[in-house]
Write a structure and sequence with these properties.
- It is a single chain.
- The chain is of the alpha+beta class.
- Helices cover 52% and strands 22% of the residues.
- It contains eleven helices and twelve strands.
- The chain has helices at residues 2-17, 44-51, 63-68, 70-78, 171-187, 190-200, 218-244, 252-271, 279-301, 308-337, 341-368; strands at residues 24-32, 35-43, 81-85, 88-89, 91-102, 105-115, 123-128, 139-146, 149-155, 161-165, 205-208, 211-214.
- The strands form three sheets. A six-stranded mixed β-sheet has the order 5-6-2-1-8-9, sandwiched between helices. A four-stranded antiparallel β-sheet has the order 4-3-7-10, with no helix packed on it.
- The radius of gyration is 22 Å and the shape is globular.
Length: 374
């Protein structure tokens, strides 16, 4: 039984231990005949950790400080990227160095050309190792375009190479590409996970005379969870689609701050219940905001113009599969432990308090644009 306790604790607090969005870079390659052009967005915070950019140590990386280390940045990055055309390495030639803002901060933008020998390469392969020696959770999000067709992929220590062969891209293959991306991004979206966990924690309990008691029937618990998860799913699916298609656009700082607020309020509601019924309505209301957060990831990956609906459906289904995996792992274990002090005191109360603390830090950082978490 003790092993169950530790498994549940590890599941609950793993996301809280990693407060910020994990390290990602965004690599876009475009092939037009013999010409291969690229753009690589790398977080300044990651470059600072790897090679140091903040010359005066004041915590802010200026354009001047980045520009002064341009050669070091390019040398560091390009030594960890290899583009191969029909099996032969292409020489990477730096073009522009810019700065862009993503939802999680400032990024250096490296634009480059790849000089390849093959005039019309049949196979293009990418070998990637950026930050893998420093952070095994780092991922390179790849967008590959050729002949108007777009493919995506995730480069990781477990999968450091991806290859693309000329020819018609299967719609089924594109669908599964985006399905995989959606699943991966719910698993690394710690604020989304903590919001979901905040709603799941009281699902195996019943509030009676302002005291939480163990639920008596799994069927009742299951239907309550189903309503919450379905409401959250429907809501974020709506805004994810609208935002990804540029129908509605909200400032990323507002979206990220509101997501943090939703996590905080959901956790506090467990500690001092205000909304005790129709939690599905709360899930729906805040799910609308969370959809904008998912959309920022999908926008960064890039939507193929020829199959917008396919990409949206695949990505959204991937998010739902990742979400259902979390629910499926958490709910049976929580139900089995719901009667003991361990769940009610440590997991439910302690977990909700920890989530509230993490969300408060997130909210402060995002709303005031300050850095509190190391």
């Amino acid at each position: 039984m003790k092993s169950k306790y530790f498994v549940l604790l590890a599941f609950l607090f793993a996301a809280a231990a990693q407060a910020h969005k994990p390290s990602d870079s965004y690599l876009a390659l475009s092939v037009d005949g013999a010409a291969v052009r690229g753009q690589w967005d790398i977080a300044l915070r990651d470059l600072e950790f790897a090679i140091g950019l903040d010359a005066d140590g004041n915590g802010d990386i200026t354009w001047g400080e980045l520009k002064a280390r341009r050669k070091e940045v390019e040398a560091y990055a390009f030594s960890r990227l290899n583009v191969l055309s029909d099996g032969k390495s292409c020489a990477l030639n730096a073009a522009d160095l810019l700065v862009d803002e993503h939802s999680d901060g400032a990024y250096a933008v490296l634009r480059f050309d790849a000089a390849c020998r093959a005039s019309t390469p049949a196979r293009v392969e990418i070998a990637y190792s950026l930050f893998f020696d420093l952070d095994p959770t780092h991922r390179g999000l790849l967008r590959f375009e050729r002949g108007g067709a777009v493919q995506t992929g995730v480069l990781s220590p477990e999968r450091p190479r991806l290859a693309f062969t000329a020819g018609e891209i299967s719609r089924l293959s594109q669908f599964f590409d985006y399905l995989r991306e959606g699943t991966w991004h719910i698993w690394i979206g710690f604020d989304h996970i903590l919001f979901l966990l905040s709603l799941l924690l009281p699902s195996v309990l019943i509030l009676n005379n302002r005291e939480w008691k163990a639920a008596e029937r799994f069927r009742t618990t299951f239907w309550d969870v189903l309503k919450v998860v379905t409401s959250f799913t429907v809501a974020h699916s709506i805004t994810l689609s609208l935002a990804a298609l540029s129908v509605i656009s909200l400032p990323s700082r507002l979206v990220e701050s509101t997501i943090a607020l939703s996590v905080l309020l959901a956790a506090l509601n467990n500690l001092r219940p205000v909304v005790t019924e129709r939690r599905w309505a709360v899930a729906f209301a805040f799910g609308l905001i969370h959809g904008f957060g998912f959309a920022s990831v999908l926008t960064d990956l890039g939507l193929p113009q020829g199959s917008l609906l396919l990409a949206l459906v695949g990505f959204n289904l991937g998010v739902e599969l990742g979400q259902l995996a979390i629910v499926g792992a958490f709910l049976p274990l929580a139900y089995a432990l719901r009667r003991g002090w361990f769940y009610r005191r440590l997991v439910f109360t302690g977990g909700s308090a920890t989530i509230a603390l993490v969300a408060t830090i997130w909210l402060t950082e995002r709303a005031l644009d300050v850095k509190l978490w190391p």
